Amino acid sequence: MSSSSTTTLPLCTNKSLSSSFTTNNSSLLSKPSQLFLHGRRNRSFKVSCNANNNVGEHDKNLDAVDRRNVLLGLGGLYGAANLAPLASASPIPPPDLKSCGVAHVKEGVDVSYSCCPPVPDDIDSVPYYKFPPMTKLRIRPPAHAADEEYVAKYQLATSRMRELDKDSFDPLGFKQQANIHCAYCNGAYKVGGKELQVHFSWLFFPFHRWYLYFYERILGSLINDPTFALPYWNWDHPKGMRIPPMFDREGSSLYDDKRNQNHRNGTIIDLGHFGKEVDTPQLQIMTNNLTLMYRQMVTNAPCPSQFFGAAYPLGTEPSPGMGTIENIPHTPVHIWTGDSPRQKNGENMGNFYSAGLDPIFYCHHANVDRMWDEWKLIGGKRRDLSNKDWLNSEFFFYDENRNPYRVKVRDCLDSKKMGFGYAPMPTPWRNFKPIRKTTAGKLNTASIAPVTKVFPLAKLDRAISFSITRPASSRTTQEKNEQEEILTFNKIAYDDTQYVRFDVFLNVDKTVNADELDKAEFAGSYTSLPHVHGNNTNHVTSVTFTLAITELLEDIGLEDEDTIAVTLVPKVGGEGVSIESVEIKLEDC
After folding, report:
1. 584 neighbors 488 (Cβ within 8 angstroms)
2. For the whole model, what pTM was predicted?
3. Inter-axis angle of helices 204-222 and 174-185, nearest 10
């Protein structure tokens, strides 16, 4: 196709994907890990596409970049991604299912089964998804408050989904649904010659919203209830800060044995958990949780870039940087729930490849998704990104009728337009700004080493303090509204197969009690869940970590100071963490 062509690519809009499969007998003799030795399935769905079907709204509006995405992301001319750079926008295309490969648990250890989905025969003609008509919203309830009638329906739907695993290639089966997360997150897919990773960037929220959308509709179809909605694990409210009872009933389809057994039976969750139990009273844990929620939703996320994560256009390296909620509480909830005491890799919830095998994963992510809506309600400049590379990024899913579809980020920004909403629950963290101060007045920065003497730092194996000069002080309200003050940690490097967490405080020294987070000086935390990049043989991840500190400086009375003190306290994995440099920037919001 000529680059100047304006022809719209014909896409199929079939509504009747046959549930029958074509089988290559040789695949039945292969071990699971060998089925995708060459990135191709030996078994596929039959999809019949009619090029004369009416084009949809997306097709009418495809620009040159979108047409190129069709070629790059869905096979056929996929290799064109390496021929020349894109002239304009470069959104992430949907993955090339035909080249889906082996997923990795960690260095030298592959996932023992294929995480790749069945490939439609007419993969080059997969249509864009269109929302079906709806008569009422599906309302997602808080899991801890669900009644027995709801729990029975949810158990039945999940049982029926598990029964579909009898055919391991049924895309609606429980394991195939779990494999979606494995394939997108553990190195099975590549786009533009690089691994595709939907975590640690601005793809995190939209990918998981689409993922839950189809999972929820599949469950509803299995019990013939189009109004069925997933529950959300309300861990941001004290009443929901424990495993919801419906998931803790042994023998239930919602129960998973690969959970930390020490965290059952009403144990209060630690939203900052990273593998080590803290000897802290329950009330302090709940207080810490609400403090973390306030920092992640309000203080550290005044602008879209902080909330959603770093930009991830086609051609860039994966995992450029997490948004606030992906960092905490999303990641610690995974770690807290996973069975790290008994499972080598924290299965199920404690590792990306296996997380979807625990039904509570979808309940957890429903509340993560709810935070997207709650964040926008706070106001200010909290709004969706407008970058076209983000809006036009795409994913691939099967719907409840086993039809394959492509979806765009731009179509999942409004949950109500997608047909679902959330039952309201109070959000006490919104009024939980920490006001208790550890230090009276300004800490003497003259007694602390300057940032240039501390960094580069070879390992964060103990608490460290340093002083750092701000780019501007005594800023006016207008200046603060125009630009956010950002504490930036450049090139944090660590082994991405290990758990990592360190906390950041301002205006205190390294003697600070880091087990009590409800302090005005607590700025935030960096965390990382074990994950593997297929093309990263040494498993050293390098990221940039940022904290918005404008509000924090106001609260602790340092607005007029030219130099401030910063303290880092490692919680887990600090001995393997290095940091090249630290600086404070002013960035447009």
Report:
1. yes
2. 0.84
3. 170
Asked if 533 is an active-site residue, the reply is no
- The pair of structure tokens assigned to 417 is 């337009």
Q: What token pair was written down for 552?
A: 């924090």
Sign of CA dihedral 86, 92, 94, 100: positive
Cβ(269)–Cβ(221) below 8 Å = no
Is 531 an active-site residue?
A: no
Residue 55 CA to residue 127 CA, distance in Å, equals 9
364 is in an annotated binding site: no
Provide the 3-class DSSP secondary structure of residue 328: helix
Secondary structure class of 44 (helix, strand, coil): strand
Per-residue burial over 236-257, b if 16 or more Cβ lie within 10 Å, else e, is bbbebbbbbebbbeeebbbbbe
Indicate the burial class of 200 (C-beta count within 10 angstroms; 0-12, 13-18, 19 or more): buried
Any catalytic annotation for residue 104?
Answer: no
> Considering only CA atoms, which of 337, 131, 132, 157 is closest in space to residue 230?
157
- Any known ligand binding at 237? no
**Cis peptide bond N-terminal to 348, omega within 30:** yes
CA angle 518, 519, 521 (to 5 degrees): 140
536's tokens: 């990263």
Q: Is 199 a known ligand-binding residue?
A: yes
539 known ligand binder: no
Distance from chain centroid for Cα 496: 16
Beta strands in 66-133 (DSSP E): 104-106, 109-110, 119-120
Tokens of 183: 């394939």
Catalytic annotation present for 273: no
Which of 263, 330, 531, 533 is the catalytic position?
330
Find, among 76, 112, 114, the residue nearest to 94 by Cα. Answer: 76
pLDDT digits (tens, 9 = 90+) for 226-237: 999 999 999 999
Of all residues in the chain, the percent with pLDDT exceeding 90 is 76
Pull the structure tokens for residue 245.
């009872």
Q: Give the single-character DSSP code of 128.
A: B
Helix axes 204-222, 148-163, angle to 10 degrees: 90
Per-residue exposure over 118-140, b if at least 16 CB sit within 10 Å of its own CB, e if not? bbbebbbbbbbbeeeeeeeebeb
Q: Would you call 199 a catalytic residue per the annotation?
A: yes
pLDDT at 35 over 50: no
Catalytic choice (58, 104, 144, 181):
181
C-alpha span between 322 and 332 (Å, rounded):
14
Residue 71 pLDDT exceeds 80: no
Question: Tell me: the pLDDT tens digits for 287-313?
Answer: 999 999 999 999 999 999 999 999 999
Q: For residue 65, what are its two tokens? A: 């970049």
Is residue 373 within 8 Å of residue 139, measured between CB atoms? no
15: which residues sit within 8 A by CB, 6+ positions away? 401, 403
- Active-site residue (options: 174, 352, 489, 502): 352
Helix axes 360-378, 204-222, angle to 10 degrees: 130
The identity of residue 345, as a single letter, is: N
CA 293, 299, 302, 305: dihedral to nearest 10 degrees?
-70
Q: What does the alpha-carbon distance between residue 355 and residue 352 come to, in Å, rounded to a whole number? A: 5
Q: What is the C-alpha to C-alpha distance for residues 100 and 95, in angstroms, rounded to an integer?
A: 8
Q: Is the peptide bond before 171 cis (omega within 30 degrees of 0)?
A: no
Q: In what order do the strands lie in the sheet with 500-506?
A: 464-469, 563-572, 500-506, 522-528
